[in-house]
Structures are given as structure tokens and as C-alpha cells.
Amino acid sequence: MAQLREFTYPSSDGVHAIHAQEWVPQVPLRGVVQIVHGVAEHMGRYEGAAAFLAEHGYLVCGEDHLGHGKTAQQGEEGFFGEKDGWSLVTRDVAALRKLQGEKYPDQPYFLLGHSMGSFLTRTYLINYPGTLTGVILSGTGQESAPLVALGKWLAGLERRRLGHRGISPLVDKLSLGAYNRKFAPNRTGADWISRDESQVDAYLADPYCQYQSTVSMFEAMMGGLQYIAKKENLSRMDPSTPVYFFSGDQDPVGGMGKGVKKVVEMFRQAGCRDVTLRLYPGGRHEMFHELNAPEVLDDLLAWLEEHRGNA
Length: 311
Known about the structure:
This protein is α/β, with parallel strands linked by helices. The chain has one domain: Rossmann fold, CATH 3.40.50. It has eleven helices and eight strands. α2 packs across α3.
């Protein structure tokens, strides 16, 4: 059993206390895995994966982003900030990496980003090259540049109409709503995240997942997607950092596998020398909550064990 510790540290916005947690192994430490969670969720949802990794000697940590989980104050759900929201959250991720690195020096250190967290992790790779033993990207993708630009423009238009904290049914329908339509007829509004109905129901019942993103947060995320697609930015990554991509081949965020392969190719063209891709047949967006989650975790552990010596 892992020992769960919760703590806070100052956000880069100078206002909030970021809520973080770590699962500490009760066996000799083999490395640290920092998880960067996705949109409209929180670190508590990674308890199963964290317990598995801790059982095998990996300390798992992560924070609830601004506007998420226990970091968000009432009325702030789905809201990063009025200005530079993407930069603020990336800096909060980097602050936790620094904090944990000081607590556990000389340990292999991995960053694992899921969905929006994978976009933040890709931003981290550009902004903080050479600070990680390896990187894991789950449920990532890359929409075409015109589509991302259109999404950002539309979100900006809605922000001017509704304010920074406004909620736009139109923006939500064109983003997360579009993902679910691929699995019609739908049992729920979140069929796209997993084939495991019990996991979908748990997600829908989670009080920290029951809100829509603000238009300013969506606009910030589209700006982030533009940033991580630019070749000149990708060239700033450390090409020696190993990267492990895994996704379901029925994940709409990853374009049913095509978008994931696109990002893999972007990394290889940027000179990354150790890039691994694993696509799981039939898997949807959240492979840690899929029917074959044990297989996914076993594969992740094998990759960590193979690469921990790079520290």
C-alpha cells in the first residue's frame, strides 16, 4: 500500500495555493512519476495507476491545475486566469517538478501528461529541456492548424461576449460534444472516454468533473496547441529525452490514432531519438480507465524500467 500525502505550494499566479498529492511507495524507491491531468478532472482520478506504480517502487505525484480539483475555489471551476493562463499552469507543473526533485534528488524523474495534460507536458518539454529522465504522453493529438486557429478565434469571440469566466454551449458542443458523437447512439455524454461503463459512470458522478470549461480556458488551450505545433519551438526540446506515447486507437482526441501518429512524426522530425508508440485496439480516451487497464499499466511499467537508467 502506498502512503498518500497531500500538500500545497504557491501558484505562479501569485494568488492561489496549488493542491498537490503524492503516493509514496512502501518499498525501495525506483523513481518519480509526476502526472499532469487533463481538462475538467483532477489528480484523485489517478489513484489506481498511482497505487500500481507505487507498488513497484515509483513515487507518483501531481497537482490540481488552476480551476481544477481542490485548487479551484467556488466559482473558479474550469478557469485558469484572465491572462497567460497556459503559461501559468505550465509554470505550476514546473514548480512541482522542482519541488519534488529537491525532495527526491538522484531519482529518475518522469513526467506523464494525459489529454490536455499531454499538451501541457509538450509545452514543458519545449520550455524546460533536459530536466527529465523521460516523458509519457497519454491521449494526445494535434488537430490541423486551421481548425485550432478557428477554435481559438471562436473562443475569443465568445470571451468578449460572455467574459473570461463565461461558459459557451457552442464551444462545448464543437469540442467535447463532437468527441461523443463518434460513439452514437450514446448511453451518456461521456461515452468517448472509455468502453468500461462503470468508469464512465464514476466520471459523471465525480463532483470535481461536473463543470464545463470557461471560454478563456479553451482559448488558452488552443493557444497552447498552436505553440506546441511550431517547428521552431519543437527544435528547443532535448532530443535525447525518451518519449513514450500511448493511446486507444478509438480515441477521438488522437484522431482515432492518426493524430497520435502525427505527433510522433513531429517529434521524430524534431530530432527525438527514442520515441515509442503504443496504440491499443478498441481503446478510447482514458486508457488507465479502459477495459484493458492492467495491460496498459504493465506496458508503462516495462517502459519505465527500461528507461530509468537514463537518469
